[in-house]
């Protein structure tokens, strides 16, 4: 749109429903340590109604229209998601236009909103896997890109009314908003409706993103538990790199190997996985394991050995199984309007364009064993970060310490 609002619209001929996501570049990356949790606080306050509908009336309207809704705050974005029957799309868009452009932001409900956030933070403190995940992200990407969007109890308690108003005014703007919509709708009617609802939304200059400033090496988090939680992370080529698909395939095959070697064959950990973590300009592999304290070093050594073994290549059987899993995941995820809208949004955020289903499936089919093994040979993982969580800090052996030497992104 002329004001910079990006609209990704795709009709699905067989659908009877429609779903949309308003994704606003208003994530936790813009917070300071003093105001960590501010993006989540603003989202909580926005959901408390519009200038015409108080909180109760807003929720009654959501129910009357039949909207299935969700919201999430991530490092980069705050997303407002909604799905409904096709005939209710116009009513839903009008409601969300009011919510995002004209929220009531009721100051008298600020304490109630703060209590909701503090309860979520308190619950997360008791979850060792959550705490390890947030710690390793912050260690790998630095504070701005790695800290939890929830914030902490001290920072959320400090957030003022002026902070909330300032964040909303600074970041809720059309030129940093994407609307992704998929399902059953008339494209011409949608275009005229969006011009009516958002055409006069004024664009404003957008703040620059802060740099990634990692803190590498080793870290231990004391936690009263009989379990020890391990986290390793290392750098991958970014998603824009032509070899990213190969890097991701390597991590996904590592995930299967670790589950087999650590959990199934030896019974050393009750959970273990390796996943890719993405931002538009950076990517990493993150491996986590939960084990008993006496098995921690053995588990860590096997992880290190399996990471090193990647350079020796993978088998055709492993790659074929990966392709089947990937293809199944894509097809099943794209069977709903909500998933389709979310998939198009992710494409735009990370690739700057939207792929059709055939291109996505072709990218899986075209993964070759020769190219993958050549990539793994040329990109041996030489440096990682290590974060442990438990009652006692494990005595990390020299070969693991060497693997976790400092190396900047």
What would you note in describing this structure?
The protein has 409 residues and is of the alpha+beta class. The chain has helices at residues 38-46, 55-65, 89-101, 110-125, 128-141, 143-146, 153-158, 161-171, 187-198, 244-265, 296-309, 316-333, 337-351, 357-365, 369-378, 398-403, and strands spanning 6-11, 17-24, 68-73, 78-85, 177-183, 218-222, 227-236, 269-279, 282-292, 385-390. The strands form two sheets. It has a five-stranded mixed beta sheet with strand order 1-5-2-4-3, with helices on both faces. Strands 6-10-7-9-8 form a five-stranded mixed beta sheet, with helices on both faces. β3 and β4 (78-85) form a beta hairpin. It is globular and about 65 Å long. The relative contact order is 0.16.
What characteristics describe this protein?
19% strand; 46% helix; 409 residues; alpha+beta; globular; 10 strands; 5-stranded mixed sheet
Short description:
The chain is built from 16 helices and 10 strands.
State the helicity in percent bands: 40-55%
Biggest beta sheet attributes: 5 strands, mixed
Please compute the radius of gyration using only Cα atoms. 23 Å
Q: Name the beta content range.
A: 15-25%
Could you spell the SSE succession in H and E letters? EEHHEEHHHHHHEHEEHEEHHHHHEH
Shape from CA axes? globular
Number of strands: 10
Helical/strand content category: alpha+beta
Helix run count? 16
**Largest beta sheet: strand ordering:** 1-5-2-4-3
State mean pLDDT (0 to 100 scale): 91
| N→C terminal distance | 36 Å
Uncertain spans: none
């Amino acid at each position: 749109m002329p004001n910079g609002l990006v609209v990704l619209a795709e009709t699905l001929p067989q659908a009877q429903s429609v779903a949309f996501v308003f994704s606003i570049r208003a994530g936790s990356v813009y917070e300071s340590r003093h105001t960590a949790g501010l993006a989540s606080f603003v989202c909580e306050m926005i959901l408390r109604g519009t200038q015409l509908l108080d909180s109760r009336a807003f929720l009654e309207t959501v129910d009357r229209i039949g909207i299935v809704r969700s919201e999430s705050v991530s490092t980069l974005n705050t997303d407002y998601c909604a799905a409904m029957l096709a005939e209710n799309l116009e009513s839903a868009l009008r409601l969300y236009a009011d919510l995002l452009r004209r929220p009531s932001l009721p100051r008298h409900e600020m304490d109630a909103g703060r209590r909701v956030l503090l309860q979520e933070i308190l619950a997360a403190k008791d979850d060792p896997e959550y705490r390890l995940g947030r710690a390793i992200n912050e260690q790998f990407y630095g504070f701005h890109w790695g800290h939890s969007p929830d914030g902490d109890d001290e920072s959320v308690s400090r957030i003022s009314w002026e902070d909330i108003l300032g964040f909303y005014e600074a970041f809720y703007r059309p030129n940093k908003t994407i609307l992704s919509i998929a399902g059953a709708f008339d494209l011409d009617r949608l275009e005229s409706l969006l011009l009516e609802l958002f055409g006069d939304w004024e664009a404003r200059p957008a703040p620059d993103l802060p740099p990634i400033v990692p803190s590498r090496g080793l870290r231990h988090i004391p936690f009263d538990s009989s379990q020890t939680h391990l986290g390793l992370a290392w750098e991958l080529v970014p998603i824009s790199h032509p070899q990213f698909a190969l890097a991701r395939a390597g991590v996904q095959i590592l995930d299967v190997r670790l589950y087999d070697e650590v959990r199934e064959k030896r019974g050393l950990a009750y959970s273990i996985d390796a996943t890719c973590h993405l931002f538009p300009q950076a990517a990493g592999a993150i491996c986590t394991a939960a084990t008993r304290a006496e098995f921690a070093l053995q588990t860590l050594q096997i992880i290190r050995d399996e990471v090193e073994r990647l350079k020796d290549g993978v088998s055709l059987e492993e790659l074929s199984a990966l392709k089947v899993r990937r293809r199944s995941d894509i097809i099943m995820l794209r069977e709903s309007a909500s998933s389709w809208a979310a998939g198009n949004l992710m494409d735009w955020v990370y690739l700057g364009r939207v792929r059709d289903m055939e291109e996505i499936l072709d990218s899986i089919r075209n993964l070759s064993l020769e190219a993958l093994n050549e990539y793994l040979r040329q990109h041996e993982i030489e440096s990682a970060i290590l974060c442990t969580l438990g009652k006692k800090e494990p005595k990390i052996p020299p070969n693991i310490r060497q693997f976790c030497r400092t190396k900047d992104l």
